[in-house]
Design goal:
The chain is α+β, with helices and mostly antiparallel strands and 99 residues long. The protein is 17% helix and 18% strand. The strands form two sheets. A two-stranded parallel ribbon has the order 1-4. It has a two-stranded antiparallel ribbon with strand order 2-3.
Length: 99
């Protein structure tokens, strides 16, 4: 999985590239110094994008996204270094829809 952290507003070229990576694409190029050999590279990978304000997301990328938000710690939650554990258990693998 590729993670892009602290993403800023993105242009249409980057949005299109992300769509290709998520849904799968293929790059076909001629091998160096040859006239007939072809080199193919196929790829399809999940992406993890984080950002505070990523701007407007194009509809084709939005259709391939699973957005989630975080509103901050709950009121009354222990503050860091207060002696209480602040670890949150990870979801089990059966809870993940992308596996």
């Amino acid at each position: 999985m590729t993670a892009l952290d602290n993403l800023s507003p993105m242009g249409p070229e980057l949005s299109d590239a992300m769509c290709c990576i998520v849904t799968g694409a293929e790059s076909v190029k001629r091998a160096l110094f040859t006239d007939g050999d072809v080199h193919r590279a196929r790829y399809r990978r999940p992406l993890l994008l984080t950002g505070v304000d990523v701007g407007v997301i194009r509809p084709d990328l939005a259709e391939r996204s699973c957005p989630c938000g975080w509103s901050g710690p709950a009121s009354g939650a222990p503050k860091p270094n207060s002696g209480a554990s602040s670890k949150t258990p990870c979801p089990s693998s059966s809870d993940r829809s992308w596996t």
